[in-house]
Amino acid sequence: MMPQLIMHIDQLAMDNRRDVLFVRFAESFEGQKRMGSREYYKKSKIRQRLLEFLEENEIGSIECGPPSNSGYMSGYWGEIYIDVPFDESDSDYRKVQAFLENEDGSMKFDDARFYYFPYEYAKESIQQGLESLVAEFSGWEEKDEPHFEVFLGDEREERNMLMPWVRVYSVDQAIMFLETGEVAELHLDYDLGGDETGSGYDVLLWLKEKVKTSDYKLPEEITVYSKSLENKARMEATLEEIR
Fold first, then answer.
1. Residue 153 near residue 187, CB atoms below 8 Å
2. Which end of the chain is less packed: N or C, by CB atoms within 10 Å?
3. Average of per-residue pLDDT across 90-116
4. Rounded CA gap, 71 and 200, in Å?
5. Which domains are present in the chain?
6. Are 224 and 204 in contact (CB under 8 A)?
């Protein structure tokens, strides 16, 4: 069986660009003790009932992890991300809320907790995690050849499975990693879905200026792409100028 990639809840908020919802199970010590430590979620009847309910109502869900910058290392404890907006006018949200909560807002099931994770918290969490990673790279006294793959974009292409990789969500975050000199492969999408994050083309303009004014070494491989043929051609032309 191939290992399963489980995304953190803040990464899911960033991908969806909105507040997100998830459910945890048997959070109390007694609940975990009763169900058997870390494997409790496999024995959780309410978790199975929830998954069946979501499938019956054609509501999307996937397994998820805690915030990526939660400050501790943790395995998977059975959390489920529910793909509906936190919006009481949304019919699917009301269905999920009615399944999990009583009218007074209390939970119907002792071993389940229904959480809302704000998009603004996700941005802060991701930024702090990336800054910590960059600080770790910058503090290395001895460095081999650049060995990290950085991806900036809405959708991932197939990546190098033998190389550590980092997903960034804005031009500033991409540049933050490029300045470490540790990026071997760089993937740039023109379309990032919002003015506040810039575009992959902006990163190329930064690289162009950096190469022009210093002895900066480009990543060994730079891949550009866009749903727009015009934008992709624009990026490819700039990349050729840089090289």
1. yes
2. N
3. 93
4. 30
5. 7-120 (no CATH), 141-242 (3.40.50.2300)
6. yes
